[in-house]
TrEMBL record:
This is RNA-editing substrate-binding complex 6 protein domain-containing protein. One of its GO terms (molecular function) is RNA binding. InterPro entries: FAST_kinase, RESC6_dom. Pfam families: RESC6. The lineage of its organism: Eukaryota, Discoba, Euglenozoa, Euglenida, Spirocuta.
Amino acid sequence: VLPHTMIPGYVLRRPAVQWRHGIHPHQCPALHTRPCFATSSSATGCTDPVCPVDVLQSAINYIQQAKDLAGLAEEWPPRAVPLRVQPSLVSDIKAKWDRLCEMVQVGQAQVDQELVWNVCGVLSTLGAPPYRQAIANEILTPQWRQLMQSVARDSEVDTMVLKQFSGVQLHQLVCLFAEVDIPLGQNIMKVAVDKMIADHIVHDLTGSELVSLVVAIAKGHHAVCPDWVILIGQKLTFSLPGLSQDEVCSLLHALADMGVRNDYLLATIAIRLTQLARALTAHNIAEVCNAFTQIGLRQDELMQTLAQRVLQMEELMPEDLVPVATAFGNTRHLDVMRPVMVHLKRRILQAEVLQVLTAEETGSLLAAYATIRMDEAELTKALVQRFRALTDAAQLTPPALGDMAWALGQFKVKEKALLTAAAAVVSTQDLADLTPESMQRICWGYATHHIKARDLFEKMADRAVMQPMLDTFEAPQIADVLWGFGTLGPKHEPLLQAFAKRARSDELLVTFGAEDLAHVVWAYATFACEEHRLMAAMAERAMDPAVLQDFNESSVSMVCWAYTSLGIKHTVLFDELGKVEKEARVLSTFSNPLVEKAVTWGSFALIMILAMNMQG
């Protein structure tokens, strides 16, 4: 490989940050006090030079060679100079790092954080983000990933070490950890952001570096950072003309994940994406649609442009069809989504696409059309047939079943035999990929079709009460799952107890709306489950004016029936709900739908209570 100085047009980048490459035992007290793990030693030192300092220095030398190789690819198109680290070099680096990993752990109660952070610092200087990430993923052994994970937590020692680094160094570290998918703790990120602000590094970062930083912050879901991202909005805006379509899309996705609403920046991003429309891939388009939908900002001109771009794509494959269909189905731009969905339907029905769809792709596509209530009989029939073939081959997953069951429920298409067979297949799995959303859709879909799947429901319930899954359930998901169990059974005590605790938690209780609240209390009453703390919390939430105004006939009757069925006479709640019904005048006759539902459920107490409230 030619030295980088011999490549025509090679321009040296600004000097790399000086990490502690030349450290020596007497300069590093933490290392100086550690015993040297050598085969023999003398008063003058180690005969076998394997002390941490020597190994670290050796590893650094090899990493610098890898950095030089990255520099070659950095200045040339990736296709012209493939990014490949020499096998012998990779092997040497891994060997050195494995040895270093052993040394920092042998005989130590804790890892020497300073040593690990400095090695990570060297890694973070390995060229531009794509190449740095490629090399880092190549040479990071499982042991070193464990070390990085250990220092990424919010320990006091780690934050003290990081305070010694500069803002530029911390910027590189934050990006490195994000690129190798190791989340940093909140306190560590706060130290990093504070230092970056103090050192005014934003003005020195290129547009690409700034995007990498914002993406890294978004990946960690750090609460301390969105305000800072808003502050650097002007710098981001000025950087947009020099960014590629992938970088602009990544930036937009990161802003959406953090909930950053900077209208001027977002409008400028939309303009830039319109300019880049011809270069946008299907993945880019899906990412853009999803981001603006998540932010809640309409960009009609951009959506028209993106729709036209999709209509020009004739050879879309499943990996592109699914995200594009899902994204446009969620945009709610009715004038642009229908032509796109019709175009995608024609492609889906082609044999070369239909016959290679996976179960998850099949379910996701039908769910995308169900989201916009676009019932294409030919498409629905074809996707159901494909799903049936995959069911027979036992190639199903919980997310795939959830999407299919939910979509069939939305379209009111009865496929009892298919869903029964699919439930039997999925119930034999360990459900490791079950998510709150897929469980919600399965429960809702099966309850809508009145198809009992006891084995599957019990197994899902066993999985749902486990952490960390339990803490990821949101209010609508809890409501639909409980409604499904209440409609079909079985009664699963651990699930009811776990959901009661989760639902009444301060963070989640305030997110319940009238309909979700009604489904929850109805389910507990159906199972005669006396969760008094939950019922008290739900009653208080129901009387919130913002929630109270959203009650309708069905939700009022469900709530009143639930409380009276459990023998809980919550007079204040009944009075408030009675006012809602009085204003709507829904009890004017006994043929009213509310009363019919109440009688159907056997809630004569409900009729009496509401009647008394009306008279009052």
